[in-house]
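Per your request, structure below.
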C-alpha cells in the first residue's frame, strides 16, 4: 500500500506540474517519508521532520474546508473510510464534493482503499 501511495503522489505531481498535496487530518497512508507526509497525525510524524513540503490538511467530512483545494493543488489523497482515526465513514456527499472540486480545479483524486479492501 505504501508504494502505491508513493507512486500515486509522484504521478499526480508529474501529470499536473503542481506540487501541493491535500490530505486529511488523522489519516494513514504508510510509513515511508512521502506517505508519512500525507498522514495527518503529528505525534507520529514529529520525530521525522522535515517531511515532504507542500502538504496541506483538511478535516475529513468537513465540506467547508474544500476551498483549500485550488489550482495549485496536484492531488487530494483520502481514505474512503478513515481506519486509523477510528473507522470514520464519509458523509453522503463528502466524497462526491471532493471529486467535483478536484475536477473543477484540475487536481487528481487519490482514494487509498488499502485498509478498507
Amino acid at each position: 500500500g505504501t508504494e502505491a501511495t508513493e507512486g500515486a503522489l509522484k504521478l499526480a505531481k508529474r501529470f499536473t506540474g503542481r506540487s501541493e498535496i491535500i490530505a486529511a487530518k488523522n489519516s494513514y497512508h504508510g510509513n515511508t517519508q512521502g506517505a508519512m507526509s500525507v498522514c495527518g497525525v503529528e505525534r507520529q510524524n514529529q520525530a521525522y521532520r522535515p517531511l515532504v513540503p507542500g502538504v496541506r490538511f483538511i478535516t475529513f467530512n468537513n465540506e467547508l474546508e474544500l476551498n483549500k483545494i485550488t489550482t495549485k493543488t496536484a492531488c487530494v489523497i483520502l481514505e474512503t473510510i478513515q481506519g486509523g482515526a477510528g473507522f470514520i465513514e464519509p458523509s453522503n456527499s463528502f466524497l462526491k464534493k471532493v471529486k467535483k472540486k478536484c475536477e473543477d480545479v484540475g487536481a487528481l483524486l487519490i482514494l487509498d482503499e488499502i485498509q478498507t479492501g
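The longest strand covers residues 73-79.

Regards,
D.
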